[in-house]
Fold this protein.
Amino acid sequence: MAKVQDSVIGAPNPSAKPQDFSKSRDLQSRAHRLIPGGAHTYAKGDDQYPERAPAFIVRGKGCHVWDVDGNEFIEYGMGLRAVTLGHAYQPVIEAAYHQMQLGSNFTRPAEIEVDLAASFLEIIEGAEMVKFATNGSDVTTAAVKLARAFTGRDLVAICADQPFFSTDDWFIGTTELNAGIPQSITEMTLRFRYNDLENLRILFDQHPGRIACVVMEPEAAIPPAAGYLQGVKELCAERGALLIFDEMITGFRWHLGGGQKFHGVVPHLSTFGKAMGNGFAISALAGPREVMRLGGLDHDQPRVFLLSTTHGAETHALAASLETLRTYREQQVVEFLWKQGERLRSLIDQSVAENHLEGFFELMGRPCNLVFATCDRDGKRSQFFRALFLQEMIRRGVIAPSFVVSFSHTDSDIERTGQAVDGALSVYRRALDEGIEKYLEGRPVKPVNRRFN
Ligand SMILES: Cc1ncc(COP(=O)(O)O)c(C=O)c1O
């Protein structure tokens, strides 16, 4: 596809020099030889970004990052929403570093495991016990196992309108990327529609006494209808299933107390990760003593193997999390995320209107978690136009797979992003009018969950 001149409308890139991606290109071919997919996380992979993009990052500070070629960018999403305070956030680094010097993994538990458990449970009010792990997938899978053990049932009901719950077979089996997963495992996971209580009720009716748990995010891009979440909880209670809220994204972002506090609906079990440790590997499964104790040593039921791993509670990650939670509490971080997101939303809305892109470029979600959808001339979701928008944002010094802000996105970063959006959307408009092949350099991006390359 044709090249657009570098003299573009909108903000100059922060490094204020022509962008060069030659080192990225070299490293990409090496990476693909050594690592399947060229990256250790699909969502960071090359197929998620246009051809004209930084492929490897060397360092970050606040919401700014520098790639291997020395280009500087403002970025959004930040560690797939894990880095809520900012890259290399000094108090968190110092807490982790101090703890590392004392040792990170012992033969017996470390004292800090109890400290973080107490601090976490003060914030997540509905929970009485918590168990830590290193990623979100493990804790959500553990919640499912615990629910199966507690209820003595096998089936799991997941929300079909939400994109991700775990890397494990019970969930990935339901996606397009299900190669290698036995059909018998997939058959044990059922799907229901968000904001449709009747749909869930029918699922319970079709499988009486067999559904162990309902797994869902309290909210994703679409807010719950009035009474919906409460209705789900009541339905679960009525049918003897446990309600599991996956708070990987809503946790510490919608509200300090999670989506459950924001919506005033306490689930039976909830799982957290991402925002817990400002990028350090830490996650949590939390719930009432009555259920969580099945993973403990003080009951006479069959024991549940609940999250026991070698790296499950490394002390530096726990120290980072303690400091991260302290910062959230003392510095009104969540309020800041909402405020900056709102500021950004109004700039983007203005630019969409000015470029007459209503129905083509759609900003969605709460201010603390803004995402966007791109449509083609026929109003259909388009990976070509997503690639074009990402390309034009990158050209203007912003990596924006979403507009998920952090505590480090200052007013001037937001302002600069607004200018970049304005420039990118004016190209988008022209591409709609004149044909995208005139503007997109190379291939489109692709959805992560697809069966074939
Ligand atoms: C809602 C949700 N649940 C669970 C996970 C899995 O977390 P992890 O990647 O830490 O295993 C993710 C990851 O993106 C997620 O977005």
Notes: The first strand starts at residue 57 and ends at 61. The CA atoms of residues 157 and 190 lie 5 Å apart. Confidence is low (pLDDT under 50) at residues 1-10. The radius of gyration is 23 Å.
